[in-house]
């Protein structure tokens, strides 16, 4: 997280805890900024409409690459050298979070405490996508205590 923050230069870093209070606060902020539209609460209680900018999507096929040193990676036509791609991405991501908040989403990949589970972090500029991921907050906080 520190390396990414150093590269992207966010104005603030927010560790998502997944609490109801945090969710309500973020929804209120996003409605005020126009990022969310509150739906009819009689018909759709607790529901919002969020629209994505067509130019700001998570995945675009012609910009999706599998980076591997092995040229035999199956299932994808656009292969890239991981070292070359890392250099390109560092150039593109340099300063890209200026003026924005970076949200850190710790979550468990697999059942909390499972023998193969891992506690990992996702980094995003979108504030609400972590509500579902952060629902193991108490356990996650014990795992990360002192390591922020």
**CATH H-level name... which superfamily?**
Phosphoenolpyruvate Carboxykinase, domain 1
Number of domains: 1
Distance between the termini: 9 Å
Q: Give the DSSP E fraction (strand runs of 2 or more residues).
A: 15-25%
Structural class: alpha/beta
- Radius of gyration, CA atoms, in whole angstroms: 18 Å
Output the keywords.
three-stranded mixed β-sheet; 20% strand; two-stranded antiparallel sheet; globular; 4 helices; 148 residues
Task: Give a brief outline of the structure.
By secondary structure, the chain is α/β, with parallel strands linked by helices.
Description:
With 148 residues, the chain is an alpha/beta fold. It has a single domain (2-144), classed as Phosphoenolpyruvate Carboxykinase, domain 1 (3-Layer(aba) Sandwich), CATH 3.40.449. Helix content is 28%, strand content 20%. The protein contains 4 helices and 7 strands. The strands form 3 sheets. Strands 1-6-7 form a 3-stranded mixed β-sheet. Strands 2-3 form a two-stranded antiparallel ribbon. A two-stranded parallel ribbon has the order 4-5.
């Amino acid at each position: 997280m520190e390396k990414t923050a150093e590269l992207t230069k966010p104005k603030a870093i927010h560790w998502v805890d997944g609490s109801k209070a945090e969710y309500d606060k973020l929804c209120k902020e996003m409605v005020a900024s126009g990022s969310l539209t509150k739906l009819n609460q009689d018909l759709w209680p607790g529901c919002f409409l969020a629209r994505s900018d067509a130019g700001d999507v998570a995945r675009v096929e012609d910009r999706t690459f599998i980076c591997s040193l092995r040229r035999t990676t199956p299932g994808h036509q656009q292969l890239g050298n991981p070292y070359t791609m890392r250099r390109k991405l560092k150039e593109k991501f340099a300063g890209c979070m200026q003026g924005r908040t970076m949200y850190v989403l710790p979550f468990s990949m697999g059942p909390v405490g499972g023998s193969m589970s891992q506690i990992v972090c996702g980094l995003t500029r979108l504030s609400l996508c972590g509500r579902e991921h952060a629902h193991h907050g108490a356990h996650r906080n014990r795992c990360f205590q002192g390591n922020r």
